[in-house]
Amino acid sequence: MLKKSVATLVAFLLALGLSIAALSPSYADDATPTEPVATESPSSEPQEEPAADESPAPAEEDAGDEAPPAQTSSAARSASAATSYPTTPPAQVDPIPTDPTCESDGSILLPDVAGVTWYVNGTVTAAGTVPAAAGDNIVVKAEAASDGVIPGATRDSRTGKWTRTWTFSMPFVECEPELTGEISAICLNDAPYIHYSVTLIDPDHLSTSDQAVLTLAAGSDSFTYSPALGTITDGTTLEGDLLWPGASVDPITGEANGWPGWEYAGGVWQETTGNYAWSRDGVTATIAVNPELVASLEYPPGNPDCYPGPQEVTPTLTTVETDCDAVGTYTLDDIEGIQWWVDGVPVDPDTYPGSISATAHVTATATGPYVLDPDATTSWDLDFPVGEDCLGLVGSSATGTCEAGSPWIHYQVVLTDPFGEATSHDAELIMSDGTNTVTIPLGTIDPTTLSLSGDVLWPGASIDPVTGEPNGWPGWELVDGEWQETTGNYAWTRSITSATISVNPTMTVALAYPTASPDCLLDPPSGELPTDGLFPTSATLSEQCTTDGSGVLTLGLVDGVSFFEDVNYFVDGVPAASSTVYLSKGVHQVTVTTKSPTDGLDGPTAWQIVVTGGQTCGQLDTLALTGAPTGGWIAAVGALLAIVAGAVLARKRPRTEA
Q: From CA 261, how far away is CA 270, in angstroms rounded?
C-alpha cells in the first residue's frame, strides 16, 4: 500500500513539474533569460568573451541566480517575490573601433549610455574616445546598473549585474616614410634667407638616410648647402634659416653686405652675372632624406622694412633763383645712401649759396648698401645768373639843353648793381645817326652812391674858357672870319637817331639837340667877324708809351713853336691844362676851339686817339669836318706857316721855342 502511495505521489509531482515547465519562460544560458538576449551576427572586429566571474555555477547553486519562469498565477508570483529581475528596455551599447593609420593611432569610441559603466582592460573608463595604437589588444566591458539590461549581456552570479565584453586587436599599418613641412624665401634685416621647417614621419623606419640635405636648382645651375641641415628620424623636426646663395652679412652687426647678382667695385654696387645671379629668377628647393620635400621659391621681393639687395635711391635737390636781394641757393637733400659732390669735392647734405659768375657742378653717388635708381638724375650744372632788372641803369638820363648860347648835354647816371657785376664804373655817352658815331666820356661813377651827374658840351660846340662865351657850334665853321654852315664839325649830331649811356650795362636814352629860344641862340652870329688872329692847331701822339702804358700827347706844337696858349684844347671834353697830356689806354677824343670869336683856327679841330699801351703806343686819327678821321694836313700846315708865321708872331705874343 505504501509503495503504491509513493508511486502515486511521484507521478503527481512529475505531472506538476511538467505543467510548471510548460508555463515558465525559456533561458539561453543558465543565467540569461531567453527573451532579452540579442543575437549577434558574426564579425571580425570585436570578439565577445565571457567574463571571468560569469562561469556557470554548479547546478545546485544556479537556482538562486537565474531568473524564474514567467508567473502565471498569484502563487507563482508569491514564490518568486525574493528574486530581482531586469525591468529597463535593452540599450544599444556597442563600442566603435577606428583602425590606426600612418598619420595617427587608432581609437575606440565608448558610447555615453545612461546606466552603463565602461571598463578598459579592467579599469573603469569614462565614455568617449580611447586611444588604441597599432598592435594593441584591448578588452572592453560594459556593465549595466542593477535595473538595466545590455543586449547580449550575461549576468554576474555574484553581483547580479549584467555585463558584456569585447576584445579589439588593433591591426598594424605599413607606412611609407614622409617628409612634411615647408620651405620658404624670406627677407631678414635686408638679407635673403631660406626658411625651412620639416618633420620626418617614418614609424616603420623605412627611410634610407637620416641626413637632411637642402639643394637649390634652376635649369642647369644648382647649389647644395653644406653641411647638411642635421640628423632627422621619425617624429624629428628640423627648423632654421639659411642665407640665400651669394648673400652675406656682417658677422658682428648682422647687417647685409652682399647679395646674389651684385658685386662691390670702384666704391659702388654693380650688377653682375656672377655671384649666383641665376638664383634671383626663382629656384626649386629640395630637402632630401628619402623621402624629400620640394618647393618652388621666388627671390624674396622685399618690403619697406626689408630689401634683400642694394636698395635703389633717388638723389634730389632744390634750387632758389637769384633775385635782386640775394644770390640764389641750392639745397642737397639728406637721403640715406647718397653722397653729394660739388665741383669734385664731397660735401654734406645742406643748403649752399650759388654763384652769379661760376657754374656749380653737382653730382650724387651711392654709398653703403645702396645703388642709384637707373632713371634718376645724378648730375646737375647749376647757374644763378642775375636778372636783367638787377643790373641796369634805371633812372639814368641825358638831356640836351641850351646854356648861354651853347648846346650842352646834362646827364644823370644811376647804376643798379647789387652783386658788383658791372665790369667798369666809367660812364660814356654814345651818339649815332646810323652812319656816324661819337663817344663822349662822362666820368667815373661814385662807388658809394653808384651815381654820376654833370654837363658836357655838345660835340662840335665850344666856349671861351675864360669868359664862357660860345665860340663854336656843331655844323658851323669859321671861314675867312665868316661863319658858314658845314657838313663837318659834328653837323650830323644835330639830328641823331640814338643815344646810349654805357657803363656795362647800357641804357638807351632820349636825347635830342636842344631847341633855341630868344634868350638862347644856338647858331653863331651872322655876318663877317673881325679876325684878330689865325692860329695853327696840332696834336701829336708819341710812338712809344711810358712804362705804365700811358700815351704822351703833345698839343699845339707846330714846327717847334707852341700855339697851345692861344687856343682851347679839350681832351675827352675836359680842358687840357698843359700842352703835354698823358692818356690812359683806351679811346680818347681831342677837340680845339678859339679863345675869341674873332680868332680863327688853321688846321684840324678834332682828333680821335686810341692808346693801346703796347710796343706801338697807339694811333691818332684826324677827324675831318664831316667827323670822320683823315690825315695829310700837317704838311699843308707847315707850308702855310711859312707864309703867315711872321704875321702871326707880329700880332700875337712871342712863342716859346720847343
A: 9
Instruction: Tell me the C-alpha to C-alpha distance, in Å, between residue 552 and each of 223, 540, 655.
Output: 93, 8, 22
Q: Is residue 113 part of a domain?
A: yes
**Residue 515 corresponds to which cell in the numbers above?**
631847341
Q: Are 128 and 110 in contact (CB under 8 A)?
A: yes
Q: Are residues 540 and 499 in the same domain?
A: no
Q: Are residues 24 and 162 part of one domain? A: yes
Domain that holds residue 341: 311-369
Cα distance between residue 98 and residue 120, in whole Å: 16
Task: List, in order, residues 6 or more apart from 126 with CB less than 8 Å away.
Answer: 110, 118
Task: Please state, in angstroms and rounded to a whole number, the distance separating the CA atoms of residues 215 and 226.
Answer: 9
For the domain that residue 269 is a member of, what is the CATH number? 2.60.40
| pLDDT for the residue 526 | 66
- Assess whether 34 and 164 both reside in one domain: yes
Give strand ranges (E) for 278-395. 283-288, 292-297, 311-313, 317-320, 329-332, 338-342, 345-347, 351-353, 360-366, 370-372, 379-382
Report yes or no on 185 lying in a domain: yes
| Whether residue 655 has pLDDT greater than 60 | no
164 and 261 fall within a common domain: no
Contact 279, 259 (CB under 8 A): no
Q: Does 165 share its domain with 102?
A: yes
Judgement on whether residues 46 and 165 belong to the same structural domain of the protein: yes
Cell of 387: 636778372
Q: Which sign, positive or negative, has the C-alpha torsion 247, 253, 255, 257?
A: negative
Question: If residue 21 lies in a helix (H) or strand (E), which one and from where to where?
Answer: helix 2-23
pLDDT in tens, 264-302: 888 888 899 999 999 999 999 999 998 999 999 999 987
Selection from 132, 125, 73 nearest residue 100 by Cα: 132
Residue 531 confidence (pLDDT): 53
Mean of the pLDDT values across residues 220-249? 95
Q: Report how many domains make up the chain.
A: 5
The three-state secondary structure class of 569 is strand
How far out from the chain centre does Cα 323 lie?
Answer: 29
Predicted local distance difference test score (pLDDT) of residue 65: 39
- Per-residue burial over 369-378, b if 16 or more Cβ lie within 10 Å, else e, is bbbbeeeeee
- The 3-class SS string of 640-656 reads HHHHHHHHHHHHCCCCC
| 641 within a domain of the structure (yes/no) | yes
- Record the pTM: 0.43
CA angle 90, 92, 97 (to 5 degrees): 150
- pLDDT computed for residue 375 by the predictor: 94
Q: Kindly report, residue by residue over 30-67, the tens digit of the pLDDT.
A: 333 333 333 333 333 454 444 444 433 333 333 333 33
Backbone angles phi, psi at 74, to 5 degrees: -65, -30
Residues 442-457 have pLDDT tens digits of 999 999 999 999 999 9
Mark whether 24 and 164 lie in a shared domain: yes
149 and 24 in a single domain? The answer is: yes
